[in-house]
């Protein structure tokens, strides 16, 4: 038996053991299937790391909240799947050396985050500590890795988009059949959790109350912001004439998802990004076509559910004070001390929405480091700016960055190939010396008979 057969045999034995253990230990078929799938994926990853990374990326975008509630915390299994996907992508595509400046920035930032977790997170309990660590450290590390990959991350990005399209289809199922009626415990939301606690109802004064479509993201705001990320990336590729059929499908699916999500933050982010992309130039006919399609999709949704018209109106947003955020922000800012502005809150309090909540957790000092790392990462990939503009708008308004998938976990891999990566230096055409040129280690290029240098 050759080495490959031995590996397959070992992998089969592991997968069988996992299946037996799952059947004996757990009553839930969902958990059993997850464990079996994990065992098979490990075997597959030994031979096809890039394909395995693509599968994990697909599952993360399609079912990000699949998991189980542990100690009051809905633990998403694909949080770790995404980390594994990045590791597999690094093995398959290779990793460039980082600049010393990036290493220093990243080290200082991670040490600062750890200090904040120990100082204010742990005293408040496991959930605040893990939440702070999850949104502030893990995505940044993933971002640095994915923006230093040598190979083209397009297959991973396309897998993410396909997974997101599955979530869009499920959102349509929820829209027709109802959020609670179509819920799948352990898959569309964490097993043991209560989907009714996720604020998925929009209260209306003019029509009957209706659902805020969370899809598999468990919260309408997170689903809407993720949709805005995929929308902005597809929009840029279409505007730059680098698009495929999948980009058009993603654009349509994201538009429908943004409208269905009930997230006014996502609407605002999509509108601003669209205006910025359009102002950067491009084909007028493409701009008109995209605008017509966007208006058509949104009008279809609001026609079927008239309550969205009231929710998305400027008057409603102003009257609600951004869902009460402006009042909360004013109160928080009046209570923070100057030191807390710069270093973060001294004792744990439930963070406010948006940029104020971020400042409460890591302080202005941590935010400066975060922006510096993101800025250096953006410079390595063409087109990443549009993703980060979308996420920056979202993070300045609501607290989606605190929840999985956070405001840049899905973008960390998607941004690895928003558009074609910058041309590496080694691919530049090399200067070919004339045949008449001779070189010596001591003197360098010699003169030709005509007395001219070959350089």
TrEMBL record:
Tagged with keyword Transmembrane: yes
Species of the source: Plantibacter elymi (nom. nud.)
UniProt keyword list: Membrane, Transmembrane, Transmembrane helix
Protein name: O-antigen ligase domain-containing protein
Annotated spans, Disordered: 433-455
Biased composition (Polar residues): 435-455
Ranges that cross the membrane: 6-27, 34-63, 75-95, 104-126, 132-151, 163-184, 220-236, 248-276, 288-308, 354-375, 382-401
PROSITE patterns (alphabetical): PROKAR_LIPOPROTEIN
């Amino acid at each position: 038996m050759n080495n490959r057969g031995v590996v397959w045999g070992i992998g089969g034995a592991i997968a069988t053991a996992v299946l037996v253990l799952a059947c004996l230990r757990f009553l839930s078929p969902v958990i059993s299937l997850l464990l079996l799938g994990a065992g098979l994926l490990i075997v597959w990853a030994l031979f096809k790391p890039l394909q395995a990374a693509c599968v994990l990326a697909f599952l993360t975008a399609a079912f990000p909240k699949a998991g189980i509630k542990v100690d009051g915390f809905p633990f998403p299994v694909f949080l770790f799947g995404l980390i594994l996907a990045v590791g597999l992508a690094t093995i398959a595509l290779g990793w460039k050396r980082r600049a010393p400046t990036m290493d220093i920035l990243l080290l200082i930032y991670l040490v600062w985050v750890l200090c904040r977790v120990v100082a204010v997170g742990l005293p408040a309990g496991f959930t605040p500590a893990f939440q702070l660590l999850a949104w502030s450290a893990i995505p940044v590390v993933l971002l640095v890795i994915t923006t230093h990959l040598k190979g083209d991350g397009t297959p991973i990005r396309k897998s993410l988009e396909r997974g997101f399209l599955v979530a869009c289809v499920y959102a349509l199922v929820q829209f027709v059949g109802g959020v609670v009626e179509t819920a799948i415990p352990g898959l569309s939301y964490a097993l043991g959790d209560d989907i009714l606690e996720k604020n998925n109802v929009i209260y209306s004064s003019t029509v009957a109350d209706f659902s805020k479509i969370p899809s598999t993201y468990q919260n309408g705001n997170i689903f809407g912001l993720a949709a805005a990320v995929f929308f902005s990336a597809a929009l840029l590729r279409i505007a730059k004439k680098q698009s495929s059929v999948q980009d058009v499908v993603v654009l349509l699916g994201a538009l429908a998802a943004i409208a269905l999500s009930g997230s006014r933050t996502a609407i605002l982010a999509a509108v601003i990004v669209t205006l910025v992309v359009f102002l950067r130039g491009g084909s007028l006919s493409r701009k008109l076509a995209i605008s017509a399609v966007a208006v058509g999709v949104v009008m279809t949704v609001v026609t079927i559910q008239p309550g969205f018209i009231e929710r998305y109106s400027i008057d409603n947003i102003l009257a609600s004070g951004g869902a009460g955020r402006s009042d909360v922000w004013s109160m928080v800012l009046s209570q923070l001390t100057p030191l807390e502005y710069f270093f973060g809150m001294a004792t744990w309090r439930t963070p406010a929405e948006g940029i104020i909540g971020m400042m409460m957790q890591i302080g202005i000092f941590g935010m400066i480091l975060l922006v510096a790392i993101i800025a250096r990462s953006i410079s390595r990939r063409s087109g990443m700016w549009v993703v980060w503009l979308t996420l920056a708008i979202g993070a300045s308004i609501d607290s989606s960055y605190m929840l999985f998938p956070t405001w840049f976990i899905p973008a960390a891999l998607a941004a690895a190939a928003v558009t074609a990566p910058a041309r590496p230096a080694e691919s530049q055409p090399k200067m070919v010396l004339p045949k008449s040129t001779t070189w010596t280690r001591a003197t360098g290029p010699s003169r030709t008979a005509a007395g001219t240098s070959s350089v």
